[in-house]
Amino acid sequence: MAWINTLVFVIIGVVIGFIIARLTMRENTQQKDLKKELDKSRYELEQYRQELVDHFAQSAELLDNISRDYSKLYQHMATTSTELMPNLPDQDNPFAKRISKLSEVTEDKDTEQGPPRDYSDGASGLLKDAEKTSKAS
Fold it and tell me: Which spans does this entry mark as compositional bias, Basic and acidic residues (predicted)?
């Protein structure tokens, strides 16, 4: 009779263990599915951000082109208006008021060299002395 009780308890223990294992495994699979979905959402968000950055960069470039073209057109109209109508008083010439401002803007754009660099041409700081000694050798 002791063997039968032991066998029944072992079978009941196995069944209970199997049920507990199934319940905990379902939670792990749900966690794995949620993690996959989260990773996918993060990836899509990063792609969207990159597309947004690219869009704004392209938009800024297009606006810059429009600005340059508009300045060229305005400058052309101003110079041709003074050439074609040299005797026209400045107060009657609609472009005369802004010719000086436009020339200042175009001169400022010509002097720009691009964005500032984050480095210097020569050594500085601790490496400055090491460079002098290596050149002297």
Answer: 128-137
